[in-house]
Amino acid sequence: MMETAMNMQLRTGTLAVISGVFADEFRYSHRTTDRKFYSNKILVKRNSGAYDMVPIIIPENKLPREAMPGMFVEVRGTLRSNKRVDENGFWHLDIFVYPHYLKVCHDSSEIEELNCNQVMINARISRISEVRETPFGRLICDFMLTNPKESNPDVYYKFPCIAWGRTAMKVSELPVNTKFSGLFRFQSREYFKRVSPNSEVGEKRIAYELSLIHYTI
Questions:
Q1: Domain 2-118 and domain 120-216 have a common topology
Q2: Alpha carbon of residue 100 to chain centroid
Q3: How many CA atoms lie less than 13 Å away from 141 in the CB half-sphere?
Q4: What are phi and psi of 66, to 5 degrees?
Q5: Record: fold of 2-118
Q6: Is the dihedral of CA 130, 147, 11, 114 positive or negative?
Q7: Beta strands 72-85; 14-22: pairing state
Q8: DSSP string of 91-134, one letter each residue
Q9: Taking the domains of the chain in order of start, what are their residue ranges?
Q10: pLDDT tens-digit readout, 147-162
Q11: Into which CATH architecture does domain 120-216 fall?
Q12: Cα–Cα distance measured from residue 74 to residue 115, given in angstroms and rounded to the nearest whole number
């Protein structure tokens, strides 16, 4: 399995190892010319007790026989992204895991490492922002990593990333197009989207991003 996972990362530039519990049942996502795809989310518990939601999308022929909310699951696969337009005409970048290996069970002891949340990426920096300070006083830097699609090198997957503290300072000084290898945690966070800057009207949304643990260049 490890050799397969390493080959996967070398071939695609990404490797995601995620384990936790299903948040829901699988739901229809979309279809291509000859295949249907279904989506779900995996809840991964942090050390703090909070949970990250990790979206996964899988073809119909690889759906597990049983996948109920609360069942334990382990996936290994590649990271992908997709641009979509919402009902208001706004573009969104969705990131998700495409499993190449999926194990579902009722007993957590059957999972090799429960609540594992690791994403490895070898890519290039396509966009990077200046360091800013959060309302809680932490330094943060947003940047985008880009990888060519395996089946079509002219099409690129884009992955929104964040770095914290001293690491944010160092990453912010890297030039665009730098080759970047990093270990990340797949992070989800809830935010309130206002209809206008001064409006109290809006809706709760969930943002997905990759939080940097360490990196090499």
A1: yes
A2: 15
A3: 22
A4: -135, 130
A5: OB fold (Dihydrolipoamide Acetyltransferase, E2P) (2.40.50)
A6: positive
A7: antiparallel
A8: EEEEEEEEEEEEEEES-GGGSSSTT-EEEEEEEEEEEE---EE-
A9: 2-118, 120-216
A10: 998 778 788 999 999 9
A11: Beta Barrel (2.40)
A12: 9
Q: Any idea what the Cα angle at residue 4 is, between residues 83 and 147, rounded to 5°?
A: 30
Residue by residue, pLDDT tens for the chain (217 residues) are 444 555 655 567 899 999 999 999 999 999 988 899 999 999 999 999 999 999 999 999 999 988 999 999 999 999 999 988 777 777 889 999 999 999 999 999 999 899 999 999 999 999 999 999 998 899 999 999 999 987 787 889 999 999 999 999 999 999 999 999 999 999 998 877 666 667 677 777 788 999 999 999 8
Q: pTM value?
A: 0.89
* 98-119 burial: b if 16+ Cβ within 10 Å, else e: bbbebebeeeeeebeeebbbbb
Distance CA 12, CA 158 (A): 13
